[in-house]
Amino acid sequence: METREGLYDIDDLWQIACDPDNDKRYELIEGELVEMPTPGEEHGYLTVLLAKFLVDYVIEHQLGRVTADSGFHAKDDRYTLLGPDIAFRRLDPVAEPASRKWVPVMPDLAVEIKSPSNTMPDLRRKAALYLERGTQLVWILIPAEKSVEVCRLDTSGKLQSESIDAGGALSGEQVLPGFSLELSALFS
Fold first, then answer.
1. What whole-number distance in Å separates Cα of residue 132 and Cα of residue 127?
2. The domain that contains 134 carries what CATH number?
3. What is the extent of the structural domain holding 79?
């Protein structure tokens, strides 16, 4: 697959993703293609484990939909498409069917799991992109530190984050009311 110079939009990325000769995964950040390397086993395990806890809670409380590795973009932004490792989106009781393409709304919760190929500044930039486009809460799991950085926007629109260590617990806050998960359940 050959890439070109200039800005890409979500339609360009869809064509790339559907190209049978393409063997790479990309996100789109402000018109720029960003290659996403295939994650390792630890990353995959944490994705499945956290998704299980979230799915169990969301189904029990009929709150919405949990996804993994799905593409989301804000309705009014065709130049940024993000693929969180895990996402939660609230849905009405009469939910629309799952989209076969990119989801044209940002998730309420986005989860990114730090891989060796990620830097914290890049993950924080991504957290800000989610939040600026409508996501309410971002969790960045940091396996090497057995911690999670919880990100939200403050009242002035700036990224605010707090770190929760292995002895603490994640809260669903207003996004998943009542959800709590001891980090020891993830990082045992």
1. 9
2. 3.90.1570.10
3. 38-185
**Domains held by the chain: number:** 1
Are the C-beta atoms of residues 1 and 77 closer than 8 Å to each other? Answer: no
- Whether residue 7 is contained in a domain is answered as no
Task: Quote the CA–CA distance of 18 and 23 in Å, as a whole number.
Answer: 10
Q: Is position 11 within any domain? A: no
Please, what's the b/e burial string for 129-153 (b: 16 or more CB within 10 A of its CB; e: otherwise)? bbbebebbbbbbbbbeeebbbbbbb
Asked whether residue 139 is assigned to any structural domain, the reply reads yes
pLDDT tens for the chain, residues 1 to 188: 455 667 999 999 999 999 998 888 999 999 999 999 889 999 999 999 999 999 999 999 999 999 998 999 999 999 999 999 999 999 865 566 777 788 999 999 999 999 998 999 999 999 999 999 999 999 999 999 999 999 999 999 999 999 999 999 999 999 999 999 999 999 98
Going 85 to 101 to 58 to 64, the CA torsion angle's sign is positive
Helices (H), 2-85: 10-18, 41-61
**Position 33 in a domain:** no
Which residue type occupies 63? L
Does this model's pTM top 0.70?
yes
